[in-house]
Amino acid sequence: MFDRKLWRNFDYPLLFIVLLISAYGLVVLSSATRNYSADPLLYVHRQFIWVLAGLFVMFIIISIDYSNFSRLHKHFYVANLILLISVLFVGTEVYGSQRWIDLNFMLLQPSEFAKLIIIITLARFLETKEGELDDFKNLILAFIHVAIPVFIIFKQPDLGTSLVFLAILFGMLFLGGAKIKHLLFTIFSGVAAFPLLWMNLEEYQKMRLIIFTDPEIDPLNHGYQLIQSVIAIGSGGTFGKGLYQGSQNMHDFLPAQHTDFIFSVLGEEFGFIGAAVLLVLYFLLIYRILKISMSAKDTFGFLICAGVASMFIFQVLVNIGMTISIMPVTGLPLPFLSYGGSSLMANMLAIGLVLNVGLRRHKIMF
Amino acid sequence: MKKFIRRKRIIVFFLLLIFCFSFLVLKLFKIQIIEGGRYAVQAVKQRSHEYVLDTGRGDILDRDGASLTDSYRKYVVVAFPALIENIENTLEALQIIFKETNETAEIEFNINQGGEKAVSIASGIKANTANYIRDRNIPGVVVAQEKVRYGSDSLASHLVGYVGNISREELSERITKGYSLTDEVGISGIEKLFEEELRSRQPETVSVILDAYNRFISGLGYRYRQPENNMSSLNVKLTLDSAIQKRVEEIMDKNIKKGAVVVMEPEGGDILAMSSRPQLDQSNLNYEGNDFVNRCLQNYHPGSVFKVVVAAAALEQGDYNLKDYFICGGYIAIGTEKKQCFQGLSHGEITFREAMAYSCNTTFIDVGLSLGGQAVIDYAQKFGLGEKTGLYPLHLREREANTGYLPSVEEMPYQGHLANNVLGQDKVLVTPLQVAQMFSIISNNGRLVEPRLVMELANNQGLTVKRYASSMGQQVLHPTTVNQLKYMLMAVTQYGTGEEAAFDPWITAGKTGTAQTGIKVGEEEKSLSWFAGFTPIDNPAAVVVVLIEEGKGESASFVYNKIMSSIMER
What is the CA angle B259-B261-B264, rounded to 5? Predict the structure, then answer.
């Protein structure tokens, strides 16, 4: 099942970058969660275990030839929907959203894994329609393919993750060769449909969008996160205040500082240099993924890489953009940095898929 | 073909990626490097809840280092709303204490007082109450001593000026020097002129540092922070003598509704007192009776005081002598016009000295006309009129706004004009300060000295940082002339118009003056009354100028007498 010779194709730089970002994340997390419990490293330990577990599942994924996933696409798609719907019934509610299933040892967030499944099933769908993507009908079908799980996630409600799906769809369509004209058309119709979206948003989601346009409207409540985050990052200056020295972080002025706003802690304590280093790491990560995509032996593999790259790019831009107030607050985690098992596992799995494609890049071995 | 499109799409995708990441980096560069300092300040500020006890602004002192503004400390009860869980309980606890100590101060507490992080809820409480509250340790409430800049015995208020909130225009001018909208700046007087030196560098505060949940940050309680020594602002030491200033103001309050008094030491030019009425209450700027004009530095007609200038010109330039005889018929004819002497009464046959003593208009017009306009103007200039006196230090010289006025010869085409100006009417204008400078020339044997108001800048340890030297002066009159003038001015107080100014055992030299203001109250035209002089006639203690625009029945000579005798009694 697993040919040792395949290791020659293994993309060590990509794995190395992932390990670097994860290690960086553990350091920042140790600061962000220092005052959370009696054991200052409790969260770091947990996250570290998730990193190890993530690496473990990553290697399991790598060991299975990805063409098997193509074969099982229908099962994947249905299982995905079942899992997402089940959240609505047996899910645990946190902060007013029902996104998690309590597995006793962890809160599983199916929507994190749903992203990967959609990447696989959509890649398969687009592969079968290869060369026919200029047919608008196929585009609509691709859209519906994604829209069904997105609708369920949107109802949880989880606007951020819903948007990640759309980013994945667009990235894969663009790289898959859909007509630019068609893509632009869908973007415009999306903008036109905004009022419809608006009506279906929860009050707090609307507020987030309003506050984004002017955080000072409500500095003590809804605008608070944004203002405090920008103060934290800005006050970090060039070199930062130093690990554990961030006053905004240490004195609880930052909201969700270990999850969605972990970049604020990084920006405050490591400054512009630390932030730039992280951005360079993300950039290299995506560069490696795109490089692997170009060497993929088939369109299915190529599109998997395209989907994973789109997912990471969108999450990095939206999360960091949110912390420096150029994007609205959507509650998206920062890949490999934000605390959270599901997200970390899903990201590791995504990397595993890409490594998998890279490993089996030659159509004919020997 | 398929591969080609894919490649092209990946390149475009990659370029978009670079673009987006660059944008993030640029935005981070902007907030962290360009605006980082501002955010750093904001981060500290939002944790600190602070009450300013003393802005740290420098003091304005008299020549011996005593505060001219009568600054004092009062007890205040400061509340930190973030630390108070239950306002009702806190207020009740305070009210019980106030009742027990019979405190008269009132508690005013509205938790949302402008969203302030620390507010004074009672001020001016008794020491006893203060100690009581301190012992009780009420959460979120502390007692501290706050500095009040202007007390009830504040002196020379017009000269010292006052502070107020910075205006938007001034802020835009001073913003590069680090001023902010909440700052107070000098609005007038010395407070304004020496704003940069007096400006508070670091306030004295009582503060607490709290985290986002309003908990004390571990290890830190209430902090009383004194400004560091090297951060203290400068004190401005004036030449004023607060004892004399105080006496002058008391005498003015009794006798003058509207007017000015300048007391100047004639050798070095030190201003010992300078006071204007109506009063300005710096601690209550909204009081409607406040008068913001420093009349010591305003332009007025000198009236007969100007005869001193004409006399000096006559003695030095003309062929005149104290014993020359003049005939006063009660008027003098100029062209077709008749100029009346004092109320049309005739002084008869009098000497030049007697003409000064009785302030005979006829004689001085006669002398002035024969000297000619130019000679009179020249001598007025020798006396420093029409020019800045040099009251302020060199770099602020231009800030002395009023310099009086001397007409040119062209402005007096007819003899009638010259006659009016010789009498200190028409065009010629002087400030009370200029008159003091003028009389100091006569009392110091002919030297024009610049008045000195600012003596030095000192730090809060009393060390002199900068000293402003007094001027050496410049000989402008011949000593013989000076002696003749003294002899004339002595007659004024011995048997002339200024008899009321004289007091035993000293001999006083001086000159009275009355000037029409052109302002009519009912039928009667309002007039100014002057007396300028010095006592004793040789080596005088001071030159004193009294100007009354609106009095309380006493003459300027009388007020001079009161002020000068109190100086001599010291």
Answer: 160
| Cα distances (Å, whole numbers) of residue A329 to A46, A213, B397 | 26, 11, 59
- Dihedral, B187, B192, B195, B198 alpha carbons, nearest 10: -100
* Gap between the Cα atoms of B400 and B378, Å rounded: 22
Nearest-by-Cβ selection for A231 from B27, B33, B39: B39
Instruction: Out of A177, A293, A317, name the one closest to residue B5 (CB).
Output: A177
pLDDT at A365: 47
Min distance A324 CA to chain B CA atoms (Å): 8
Residue B266 in contact with residue B534, Cβ under 8 Å? yes
Helix axes B479-494, B432-443, angle to 10 degrees: 110
The domain limits of chain A are 4-359
Residues of A with Cβ-Cβ distance to B213 under 8 angstroms: 252
Query: How far apart are alpha carbons B11 and B18 in whole angstroms?
Result: 11
Q: Which residue stretches of chain B have pLDDT < 70?
A: 1-3, 110-115, 218-220, 229-230, 521
Instruction: Return the top range by mean pLDDT from A96-105, A270-279, B166-175.
Output: A270-279
- Domain map (residue ranges) of chain B: 2-34, 72-148, 299-430+438-542
Going by C-alpha positions, the residue among B391, B424, B451, B436 that lies closest to residue B531 is: B436
Tokens at A138, concatenated: 């196929």
Tell me the C-alpha distance between B358 and B496, whole Å.
5
- pLDDT average, residue stretch A220-249: 83
User: For residue A198, what is the enclosing H or E element?
Assistant: helix A194-199
Contacts of A104 (CB under 8 A, 6+ apart): none
At B324, list the tokens.
Answer: 């020359």
pLDDT value at residue A330:
81
Q: Which of chain B's residues have a Cβ under 8 Å away from the Cβ of A228? A: 212
Architecture of domain B299-430+438-542: 3-Layer(aba) Sandwich (3.40)
In total, the C-beta contacts within 8 angstroms joining chain A to chain B are 106
pLDDT at residue B312, as a whole number: 96
Confidence (pLDDT) at A156: 79
**pLDDT of B177-205, one tens digit each?**
888 888 889 999 999 999 999 998 888 88
pTM above 0.90, yes or no: no
Q: pLDDT tens digit string along B334-367?
A: 877 788 887 778 888 999 999 999 999 999 999 9
Cβ–Cβ gap B10/A290 under 8 Å: yes
Burial environment of residue B288 by CB neighbours within 10 A (0 to 12, 13 to 18, 19 or more): exposed
C-beta atoms of B46 and A251 within 8 A:
no
Q: Provide mean pLDDT across the span A306-325.
A: 94
- Contact (CB, 8 A) for A259 and A333: yes
Q: Quick check: A238 and B33 CB within 8 A?
A: yes
CATH fold of B72-148, please?
A: Alpha-Beta Plaits (3.30.70)
Position A270, amino acid: F
pLDDT at A118: 94
Tell me how far the alpha carbon of residue A307 is from its chain's centroid. 11
